[in-house]
C-alpha cells in the first residue's frame, strides 16, 4: 500500500500533535520540524525515532 498525504491527514505528530506532511522517504511535522522515517510504507511516528534538524546536521543540501 502506498502511503499518501490523505493518510497523514488522519495522523498527527506524537510530540506536538501538529500536522504532518509527506516527503520523499520521510514524514515531516509542520509545527516542530521533526522528521519521521517511513519503513515499508508505514510512517514510524515515534518520538524516539524522530530526527530533529536542529540537533542533527547529518543531512545536508538544499531543497
Ligand atoms: Zn511535531
UniProtKB/TrEMBL annotation:
> What is the superkingdom listed in this entry's lineage?
Bacteria
Short name of any one Pfam family annotated for the protein: Trm112p
Q: What is this protein called?
A: Uncharacterized protein
Which InterPro entries does this chain map to?
Trm112-like (IPR005651)
Q: Which organism is it from?
A: Granulicella rosea
Amino acid at each position: 500500500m502506498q502511503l499518501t498525504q490523505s493518510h497523514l491527514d488522519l495522523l498527527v505528530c506524537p510530540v506536538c500533535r501538529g500536522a504532518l506532511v509527506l516527503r520523499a522517504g520521510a514524514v515531516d511535522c509542520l509545527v516542530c520540524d521533526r522528521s519521521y522515517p517511513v519503513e515499508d510504507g508505514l510512517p514510524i511516528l515515534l518520538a524516539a525515532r524522530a530526527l530533529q534538524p536542529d540537533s542533527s546536521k547529518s543531512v545536508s543540501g538544499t531543497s
